[in-house]
Amino acid sequence: MLGVLYNSFIEPLIHFLELILNTAYSATGNYGLSIIIMSIAVNILIFPFYALAESWQKEERRILKKIGKKRDDIKAVFKGDEQYFYLRTLYRQNHYNPLMAIRSSFGLLIQIPFFIGAYQFLSHYQALDNQSFLFLNNLAKPDHLAKTVNLMPFIMTLINIASAYVYSKDFSRRDKIQLFAMAALFLVLLYNSPSGLLLYWTLNNFISLIKTLIKQSPFRRKLRSVSLYSGRIYRFLKIPTWSVFTACAFAMSSAAFYYLVKIRMANIILHIAYPVLLAAAVISALYFLWRYRDNFYYHLATLILSFLWFRSLSKLFTEGGPFKSSLKALFFDLIIIIVISYSLSYLEKLDSYMKRNKIFPKKQQNRFLYGSLSVLVLLGGAVLQSSLVASAPGEIGFSGSIVFLVFFRTLLWFGLVPLFFFYAGPKSFRRPILMLYIIFAFTALMNFLFFPGDYGLISDSLQFDSGEINHSRLQIMSNLVIPLLTGLAVLLLFILKKGKWILISLPVLVLALLSLTAINIFRIQTHESRNTSGPELNKELSPRIAFSKEQSNTVILFLDRALAGAVPIALKDFPELYDAYDGFTWYRDTLSFGVNTATAIPAMLGGYEYNPQGMIDQPEKSLIDKVTEAWMVLPTIFSQNKSSVYIEYNNNFHLKFPKEELLALSEDVTIDSFYDAFTQRWLGESTMISDFSQYLQRDKSLFMFSLMRLSPYYFRKQIYQNGLWNSVGRNSNDLKQVANLAGARDLLKEWSSLDYLPELSYTGSNKSTFSFVGNNSTHEVLGIDSTYTPSISEIDYPQEDLRKYGSTFSAQHIYTNVAVLKKVTDWLQWMKNNEVYDNTQIVIVSDHGQLRKKVYNDLFKGVEPDENQPDFNGFHPLLFFKPFKSRGKLEISDKFMTNADVPSLVLDAFGDFNNPYTGHRINSDKKSEPLLVGNGVWEIFRHLPDQYLYDESYYVKDSMLEPSNWSKIK
């Protein structure tokens, strides 16, 4: 349980401290100064909580002082139960609870997690090694300023004692002793700590001393007079609130107009609107200082407003004034300043209005509160995680401990922390805050349901294959309107006395979210039960793919989603591939029957009887059984003809894999899996990086994924952080060095096995062999750079490539496919060196192409992407074939082929064969007929029971490269 609390609460604080430190280091270039800035920043950020604790302490001391004599009298006169009942009555009459003593120590308790976080962070932060500051030679080690004696702990303790002495001037002797004992304890605990940590904690104690001195000085009274002077200025200006809001509306509309339509007139209007908005923000700040009371929300708002004012003014002066600065960011800051300044002071009026109209009656407040927070917790901690894993079972997997940790972290940050903020503020604000929580819950729900974002497929490292997240201006603006409309709708329901519908809907939503979670868990378990017979992972790098020097060898290398359109680029940039693919023919006019693995691979495995039309022609069999049967066709035929059979399958095809049925064919059948088996070994032999785990923290990434999906579009790019999910809090230069870390991790799970194919192969079999080897390197396109090698660094896309390929998304696919085509030649060379090349026939094939139309493919030159046209790229797979004894430069054929021709290609050399499960001849005769192809969901279990379910389907005849040969089925 302590581990869960640490990972849920302390670990996020460590990332937060790291972010502050490296932001400061980017500005100063000195880690000593950065630690000082971090200490100051942390103290400023937690000041509102100190102020809250101080108010609680004052309240407790006031009550104890009031009841002190009566309490002493009761204790002196009464004993046992009588004393308990009299004391309880006295406490109740004076609104005192003994638990107030715990609440009053909140100021000390709030320091504990920050101390633990700073201790863990600064004690193990390698960047501090050999970094000096003033008289400290190495911030990562004890100071040793007096040879073997560390002086920094004593300096820290002296300041700590001075702070405790000033702070406890009016305390009892017992309380003073406790504070001095605490100072001595820290001396012992931190004596051998790194000097960087001592510097941080010493400065914390010094800041605490300064704060105490300010509180006890006349200067504090002068600070309090700021609100009085602000009120006088505001009255002198005599500008009513509605005029400020009118000015704000004018400026906001001007900014929105400029943001959406960047024209010269809008730019002029924007610069006129800026000073108006700036004046409105100044007036609203004066209004805020004048109207407010000294409470927890006041301190929070002051902190936020101070930060926004500092950021806005720094941009205004450092970037050359409003006519040269980034007006979009300035507008955003100023609008928030105005909203905060006015809205909080109107919360009291809103609360009075809600109280008069019996909105959120006291008896119903808890139901609204816990209902709305339950929706947020279930959305972020259960539904999104289960939906993510269920959407790609077998590809995305998280252990039960990670899922539980993410749920607990979500419960803490989406549930318990909002509860604290609800009860920490004044009671007069609770109804409006409750309204805000309800709006948050419904806004998050709508973002989840209606704004998922089109980011492409997501990998096991939670990285989208579309690369960076981007949204159009119109998408961002329309999405930001949702919270406003939600708030108006909720408020309108309450004004119309229809708040009961929200009260009813919250438990219904909770039940629906629980049900959806249960359904997702059932889908995950169902998939796992269907694949329990999958191959076991063997991480030993030992020869296992057999070749015979005397008998025939048949090899099918399956490259998931390999693109035919990348072949011309590879041949142009690397002409040596013509010789490396010795004896091969590339069939560039090749058709796939689907645009994803589930709908495309059965025909590739078993032939035309397992294409979409073939599935329709066999209604007596279920779709799952027919897909399973397709897996069996070639292994059964080769096994019956006394060949050894080897199948490498990474369990990533969303299909039931018939392991037991295949093993039952013969004792010479071997089932294997390379998926992620050799990644760590490959890393150990490379200079790229030693281990991914120190960077990719999957629990945090999964939590950040939930936060991103529930957030508006405006914040998603910052949360996603190019696929790192803010998991690396390093400075910008370090970040660039690992910016492609997640993409490289997913690629290397497959690339490492592709690279090791020569080591995984051996000669010496006395039988003919059939080997099916699957690889997903061409599917994980985010790990290859423009040099066609794996990279964890930020990838630089040359402008020439971006112009040619059209986008970074397209370039990523081209880079990866070209790199794989080059890497495969290492295996081919091994076959030549080991004298098995001539007696081996080889098929290199993919199940389908890339579904998205925006991937470059010169074979469809002149065909502009059109929503009314089929996605040609998705139906265009790779197909290379080398027959036995074939030699010579790579040939390019315009013969029309489909990947359902693979069984015929490998069997034709041995004669005619019938499908052992249907009795029909295996050939390519059906290719002369119009071929049914379709675009459907990629989960086989979501199709119809006996055939594929398509969103759109086509008939293709004679050539897939000619758009006129495609006819859409209505």
Short structural summary:
This protein is α/β, with parallel strands linked by helices and 970 residues long.
Find the structural class using helix and strand composition. Answer: alpha/beta
Query: Counting H and I runs of at least 4 residues, what is the number of helices?
Result: 35
Beginning-to-end CA distance, first to last residue = 58 Å
Unreliably modeled segments:
320-325
How many individual β-strands?
Answer: 15
Spatial arrangement of strands, main beta sheet: 6-5-8-2-9-10-3-11
How much helical structure, as a percent, in the residues?
55-70%
Task: Walk me through this protein's architecture.
- By secondary structure, the chain is α/β, with parallel strands linked by helices.
- The protein contains 35 helices and 15 strands.
- Strands 6-5-8-2-9-10-3-11 form an 8-stranded mixed β-sheet, with helices on both faces. The chain has a 3-stranded antiparallel β-sheet with strand order 13-14-15, with no helix packed on it. Strands 1-7 form a two-stranded parallel sheet.
- The longest helix has 32 residues, at 499-530.
- The protein is elongated.
- It starts with a helix and ends with a strand.
Short descriptors:
single chain, 970 residues, alpha/beta, eight-stranded mixed beta sheet, three-stranded antiparallel beta sheet, elongated
